[in-house]
User: Which sequence fits this backbone?
């Protein structure tokens, strides 16, 4: 029986959303191929995750590894290379998360199988699998096929695959693999992001600045606009990289996810990693010099102009309204 | 580099902190250094920067981003050179530029300056917009490509890419055409003139730009250049000769003056307004040209020319030089030089603030809006006033 | 200590050029595009340059590409690399596995205690190369590193997870790290600096010198084509000078009950 294997990631004691999405895509492909959908969960005390996963998979493999409350790439790689060599699934799906990025390429090399990462679609054509991934910051997609390979690994982008019904009752199977501790790569712990003075996830209005703000000094302009609108200043990653705002203001994949009434994206290009953190906002207004900026593809309203020109005028008008 | 290797090591200590560098020619206030006007701290005046530079190169203070920002708020307006009473005054701006050059060599520049320079190197303009789009401003106009005409009309980065300045560029083109001047533009073949790059201390990049431009002009057989921007005019007139540039450079106001005197340009249609003229630093203090633009304005019937108290060599810089039209280090406050200058213009009672530089245009127009003076003061380029008067507005 | 940094040359897509798929449908039109060093690699190079300044390590920059790619190596040399090596092969059409094979073969010939890659590239953004090379070299790795501290024979790193959380490791050298943006502030490289770097050692090697055959570099994942993605609903654009657009936007916000 052919198999599709989904590597499930867990975070903070629950199965990660991205893994449930991988299972959704896996279910669709398994149905098409007449294959079994198998999920694998690796870590410490994984029984709870296994139960959750059994709602989506035909079979759930559990690998208990001590000292692994949160997923770690290297031990996971050891377990998975053994499972994959043994079961030979024709497709392995992993979420394209930080964990997935740390794991998948090494696993692919160890197994000598093809890997395509950060995919927004995977399909089964007559002559084999196709994987589609965005390139050039989302301006186009690249479509891949695979040279003759028994197993193919694909990592999938978060939020692109639909979640399945969750009405299955998969069987459980324990996998036990003895291996020693990894002295050469010692996990030392976690740090959660520090609780900040300002919680941008609570704000109704976010005035979010990107590279287009050009300098730390200009952030003051954004702050005045935020004040006038009764909102808070947030930002995209480059602003934090340059040290102009603290990390707790960052919206995006490695920052916060927000759902304000109004998200003003000022000088933000709209790269996927940022968009994923704010596309749930009620209204998105983008201002950017570049008419081709991807942000205009998800905003409700857009102004093509230099933000340093627009912000002061907008502040003035809003203040004028309020007085 | 240590202080010992610094080109001006033997004179940098001579600033004795008299503070004159902050005063205008007519001594009326202490706000004529644009950065000092904005921040009101000694560090931001020329003397302050000289002493900070000395301390940095002697390892008395460490480089910080704040130190870099202080140096880069200098707009290279030359007010300090104008006012400094010491014999080394001809070099004080050069000393600041040399200090910036040292920061550039060490890679220690503010990120906005890094972007500015990288964009010019890669795309030929500080905005980072594609070279292929540099000629788009001519669309819909009758302006032709340069193919050996009498004049090369050199527009510059701001005129090519800034939407407001593009209007001025087109208007000047119409005026030149109306006057029967034979000219052409380089369009997407035009490269940055490098004037700002030079004042930012990136010497090697400036050399690259100057050499590229000189070579291109030679290949095309350019003998006379008329520049929209005083920045371009300054670079080409004063710096390009050392790169073997053998053409003659004019600022467009000089050409318009000659055309009016020579009766090739008829401005009898007039322009009725009280106009105050803002001297651009790179035309005025840098090149001593105070009269040509005034001559042009005075020859237009209906123009009532009123002077601001700070005029000619005492004019307050709009704050756009030294890359600041892009980096905007002097913005964000009512003390910013652009807003101060606009208030000075408004105080004359004039309804039009005339400029002769696209940088001044963008800085002062934004300032008029920030001051809420849109209804009483319009910013117009001299070319735009001339265009109205000769019927090609 | 020997540090090796791998760098990539990518098209500069910030110039607001429209990126256009070329006639082959497998690449973009590159003729009018300016090229630059990959953003992530700049951070990796800066991290290496800072290590060199602090601890006097020996720094080698490497890449695999045709001769135009020398410019990113010159930049690395200007940032402090002692030498640079380019494997002369145009691998733009090759898959990650093939490129990793070449880079791993090259790094294997060099003394390497710490190998640095950018976490991903600006153009294709697969994020695979670094981790693949680590596995090929048989050394431990950590991807998406946001802070690193080199000690005696080991390196402490923080890896970036989602939502601002971090994962910390202590890894024995030799090790490979892929560097995330924001780990430092890459310095400006002056044109003069690049010119002076012209005098430094830049070596060219061939794929065959590394003992690699075409068969070893056969693609595992085959690029079928590039396509433009379906555009969702585009934003309603408000045009005009800031006076007008701001006015209209305020009106929209009022109608929406936000103001």
Assistant:
């Amino acid at each position: 029986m052919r198999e599709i294997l989904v590597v499930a990631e867990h975070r903070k004691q629950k199965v990660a959303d991205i893994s449930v999405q991988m299972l959704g895509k896996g279910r669709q492909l398994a149905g098409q191929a007449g294959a079994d959908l198998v999920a694998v969960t690796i870590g410490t005390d994984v029984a709870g995750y296994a139960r959750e996963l059994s709602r989506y998979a035909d079979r759930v493999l559990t690998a208990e590894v001590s000292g692994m409350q949160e997923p770690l790439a290297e031990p996971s790689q050891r377990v998975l290379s053994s499972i994959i060599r043994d079961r030979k699934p024709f497709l392995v799906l992993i979420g394209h998360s930080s964990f997935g990025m740390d794991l998948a390429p090494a696993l692919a090399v160890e197994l000598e199988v093809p890997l395509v990462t950060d995919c927004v679609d995977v399909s089964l054509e007559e002559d084999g699998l196709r994987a589609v991934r965005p390139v050039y910051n989302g301006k186009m997609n690249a479509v891949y096929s695979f040279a003759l390979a028994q197993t193919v690994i694909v990592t999938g982008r978060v939020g692109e695959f639909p979640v399945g019904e969750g009405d299955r009752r998969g069987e459980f199977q324990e996998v036990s693999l003895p291996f020693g501790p990894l002295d050469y790569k010692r996990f030392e712990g976690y740090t959660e992001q520090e609780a900040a003075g300002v919680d941008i996830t609570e704000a109704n209005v976010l005035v979010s600045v990107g590279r287009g703000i050009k300098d730390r000094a200009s952030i003051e302009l954004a702050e005045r606009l935020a004040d006038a609108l009764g909102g808070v200043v947030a930002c995209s990653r480059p602003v934090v990289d340059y040290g102009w705002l603290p990390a707790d203001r960052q919206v995006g994949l490695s920052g916060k996810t927000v759902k304000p009434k109004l998200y003003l994206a000022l000088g933000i290009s709209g790269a996927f990693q940022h968009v994923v953190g704010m596309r749930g906002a009620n209204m998105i207004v983008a201002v950017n010099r570049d008419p081709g900026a991807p942000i205009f593809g998800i905003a409700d309203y857009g102004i093509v102009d230099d933000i340093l020109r627009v912000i002061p005028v907008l502040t003035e008008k809003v203040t004028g309204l309020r007085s | 580099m240590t202080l010992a290797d610094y080109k001006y090591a033997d004179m940098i200590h001579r600033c004795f902190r008299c503070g004159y560098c902050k005063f205008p020619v007519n001594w009326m206030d202490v706000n004529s250094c644009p950065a000092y006007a904005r921040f009101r701290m000694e560090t931001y005046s020329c003397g302050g920067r000289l002493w900070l530079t000395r301390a940095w190169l002697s390892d008395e203070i460490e480089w910080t981003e704040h130190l870099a920002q202080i140096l880069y708020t200098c707009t290279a307006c030359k007010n300090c050179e104008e006012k400094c009473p010491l014999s080394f005054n001809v070099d004080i701006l050069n000393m600041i530029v040399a200090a910036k050059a040292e920061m550039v060599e060490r890679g220690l520049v503010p990120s906005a300056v890094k972007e500015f320079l990288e964009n010019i190197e890669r795309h030929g303009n500080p905005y980072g917009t594609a070279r292929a789009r540099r000629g788009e401003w001519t669309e819909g106009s009758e302006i032709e490509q340069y193919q050996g005409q009498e004049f090369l009309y050199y527009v510059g980065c701001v005129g090519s890419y800034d939407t407001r300045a593009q209007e001025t560029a087109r208007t000047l083109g119409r005026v030149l055409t109306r006057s029967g001047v034979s000219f052409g533009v380089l369009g997407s073949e035009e490269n940055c003139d490098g004037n700002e790059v030079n004042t930012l201390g990136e010497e090697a990049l400036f050399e690259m730009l100057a050499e590229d431009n000189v070579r291109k002009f030679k290949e095309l057989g350019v003998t006379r250049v008329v520049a929209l921007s005083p920045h371009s005019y300054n670079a080409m007139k004063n710096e390009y000769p050392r790169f073997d540039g053998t053409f003659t450079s004019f600022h467009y106001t000089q050409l318009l003056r000659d055309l009016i005197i020579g009766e090739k340009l008829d401005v009898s249609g007039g322009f009725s307004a009280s106009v105050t003229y803002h001297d651009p630093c790179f035309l005025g203090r840098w090149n001593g040209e105070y009269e040509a633009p005034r001559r042009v304005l005075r020859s237009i019937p209906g123009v009532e020319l009123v002077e601001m108290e700070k005029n000619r060599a005492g004019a307050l810089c709009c704050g756009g030089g030294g890359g600041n039209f892009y980096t905007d280090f002097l913005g964000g406050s009512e003390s910013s030089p652009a807003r101060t200058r606009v208030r000075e213009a408004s105080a004359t009672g004039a309804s039009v603030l005339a400029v002769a530089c696209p940088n001044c245009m963008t800085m002062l127009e934004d300032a008029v809006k920030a001051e809420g003076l849109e209804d009483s003061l319009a910013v117009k380029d001299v070319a735009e006033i001339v265009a109205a008067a000769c019927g090609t507005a | 200590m020997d540090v090796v940094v791998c760098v990539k040359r990518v098209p500069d897509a910030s110039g607001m050029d429209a990126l256009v798929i070329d006639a082959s449908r497998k690449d973009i039109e590159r003729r009018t595009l300016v090229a630059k060093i990959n953003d992530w690699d700049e951070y990796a190079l800066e991290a290496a340059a800072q290590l060199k300044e602090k601890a006097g390590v020996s720094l080698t920059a490497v890449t695999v590409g045709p001769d135009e790619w020398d410019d990113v190596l010159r930049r690395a040399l200007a940032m402090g690399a002692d030498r640079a090596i380019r494997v002369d092969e145009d691998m733009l059409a090759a898959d990650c596995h093939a490129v990793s094979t070449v880079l791993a073969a090259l790094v294997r010939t060099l003394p390497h205690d710490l190998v640095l890659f950018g976490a991903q590239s600006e153009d294709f953004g697969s994020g695979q190369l670094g981790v693949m090379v680590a596995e090929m070299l048989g050394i431990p790795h950590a991807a998406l590193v946001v802070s690193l501290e080199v000690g005696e024979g080991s390196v402490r790193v923080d890896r970036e997870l989602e939502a601002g959380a971090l994962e910390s490791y202590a890894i024995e050298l030799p090790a490979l790290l892929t560097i995330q943006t924001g780990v430092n502030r890459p310095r400006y490289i002056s044109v003069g600096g690049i010119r002076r770097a012209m005098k430094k050692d830049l070596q060219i090697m061939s794929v065959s010198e590394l003992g690699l055959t075409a068969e070893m570099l056969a693609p595992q994942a085959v690029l079928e084509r590039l396509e433009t993605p379906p555009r969702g609903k585009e934003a309603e654009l408000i045009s005009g000078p800031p006076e007008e657009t701001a006015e209209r936007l305020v009106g929209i916000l009022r109608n929406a009950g936000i103001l």
About this structure: The helical segments of chain A are 17-33, 47-53, 73-87, 98-111, 219-229, 237-241, 272-275, 307-322. The radius of gyration of chain A is 22 Å.
